[in-house]
């Protein structure tokens, strides 16, 4: 699976020509509380500001239902999904998810951010290793 992800992440025209050309993806993540929403007041908002040297901006789950946090183990990133999962969840670069508790919102934020950071580090190291 990881081998497939690594091959999928790299395309020849997006590889930097030297280490200085590598650009990191920038993502804004905030948790907001909307007091007018009594059922699910806590919202996690993800937005990709800069794609950087990454292969796509659309890295967040678009279609979410009540089972999604459990199906995806709180990781709302589409990175590493197979074709069937991508077809089911779709992807976007700006996503907003609603939760009943602050703890659940934090868990989704932390899990998703940690996973994306890990993949960005792997992508950067592999790209820089190819240049050397």
Low-confidence stretches: 15-20
Cα-atom radius of gyration: 16 Å
- Say how many strands there are: 5
Spatial sequence of strands, sheet with the most strands: 1-2-5
Question: What about the largest sheet?
Answer: 3 strands, antiparallel
The end-to-end distance, rounded to whole angstroms, is 26 Å
Total helices: the number is 4
Question: What is the approximate shape?
Answer: globular
Mean pLDDT: 83
Task: Classify the secondary structure makeup into a structural class.
Answer: alpha+beta
What percent of residues adopt helix (DSSP H or I)?
A: 25-40%
Q: SSE string, helix = H, strand = E? A: HEEEHHEEH
Could you explain how this protein is built, in words?
The chain is globular, with a radius of gyration of 16 Å. A three-stranded antiparallel β-sheet has the order 1-2-5, with helices on one face. Strands 3-4 form a two-stranded antiparallel ribbon. It is built from four helices and five strands. The longest helix has 30 residues. Helix content is 37%, strand content 20%.
């Amino acid at each position: 699976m990881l081998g497939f992800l690594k091959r999928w992440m790299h395309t020849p025209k997006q590889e930097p020509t030297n280490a200085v050309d590598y650009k990191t993806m920038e993502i804004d993540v905030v948790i907001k509380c909307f007091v007018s929403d009594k059922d699910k007041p806590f919202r996690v908002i993800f937005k990709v500001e800069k794609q950087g040297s990454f292969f796509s901006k659309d890295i967040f789950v678009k279609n979410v239902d009540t089972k999604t946090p459990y199906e995806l183990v709180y990781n709302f990133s589409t990175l590493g999904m197979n074709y069937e999962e991508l077809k089911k969840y779709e992807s976007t670069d700006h996503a907003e998810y609603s939760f009943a508790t602050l703890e659940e919102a934090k868990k989704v934020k932390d899990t998703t951010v940690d996973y994306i950071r890990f993949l960005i580090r792997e992508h950067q190291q592999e790209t820089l290793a190819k240049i050397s």
